[in-house]
């Protein structure tokens, strides 16, 4: 074989190898940049989730503490603190495993949560407006929503009703209403147990005038869970 031909062939082969190595390097660099960008996006999303979770948890803890203090005061014997509750107590219990707010509220995030709470409260007040057993002093309304938060979030996201972030912000907005508490339970059985305990605790109090239990038949702003799936 001619030496010059062999050298030329080797030179061509080396050039081809170098070009391929450069292409691989460029592809790796592009993939690295894409992964780095995705990591930053996930870090931001994680930060939002942590902040929303902390806000929701703190709000729920404050509400539960306030209710525990009120309940303790109500149960004080005659020798206890002199506290007078002039208003009747109306309890609204929502079984979130059977009925839940319209998906339209979830899409609006925190604002949707606030709006849902306001409309629910207004609907209950209108429902009780003509109740003759409620005195002129009015009533205090306590609403408790029992849900499996993780399961409901997954259901909403999978069915395209909202994003995970929108769901979390919705819960934050809902929890900002002082008269509404979200009770997160592990499963359906847990919901039943919690609701029974709640009713048993408050039903015997002289201040309790009405207990509204929302399962399927509920105010206009509440939809059966089955209709959201």
UniProtKB/TrEMBL annotation:
Start and end residues of each DUF7923 domain: 87-216
InterPro entries listed in its UniProt record: DUF7923
The name this protein goes by in its record: DUF7923 domain-containing protein
Organism: Heterobasidion irregulare (strain TC 32-1)
């Amino acid at each position: 074989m001619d030496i010059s031909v062999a050298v030329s062939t080797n030179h061509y082969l080396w050039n081809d190898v170098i070009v391929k190595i450069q292409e691989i390097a460029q592809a790796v660099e592009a993939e690295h940049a894409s992964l780095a960008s995705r990591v930053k996006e996930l870090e931001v999303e994680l930060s939002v989730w942590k902040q929303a979770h902390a806000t929701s948890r703190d709000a729920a803890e404050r509400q539960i503490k306030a209710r525990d203090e009120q309940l303790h005061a109500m149960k004080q014997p005659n020798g206890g603190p002199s506290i007078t509750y002039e208003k009747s107590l109306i309890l609204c219990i929502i079984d979130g495993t059977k009925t839940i707010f319209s998906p339209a509220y979830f899409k609006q995030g925190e604002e949707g949560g606030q709006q849902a709470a306001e409309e629910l409260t207004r609907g209950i007040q209108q429902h009780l407006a003509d109740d003759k057993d409620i005195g002129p002093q009015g009533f205090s309304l306590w609403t408790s929503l029992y849900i499996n938060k993780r399961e409901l979030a997954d259901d909403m996201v999978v069915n395209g009703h909202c994003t995970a972030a929108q769901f979390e912000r919705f819960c934050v907005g809902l929890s900002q209403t002082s008269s509404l508490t979200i009770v997160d339970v592990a499963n359906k059985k847990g919901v039943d147990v919690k609701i029974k305990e709640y009713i048993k605790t408050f039903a015997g109090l002289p201040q309790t005038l009405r207990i509204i239990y929302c399962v399927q038949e509920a105010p206009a702003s509440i939809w059966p869970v089955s209709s959201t799936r």
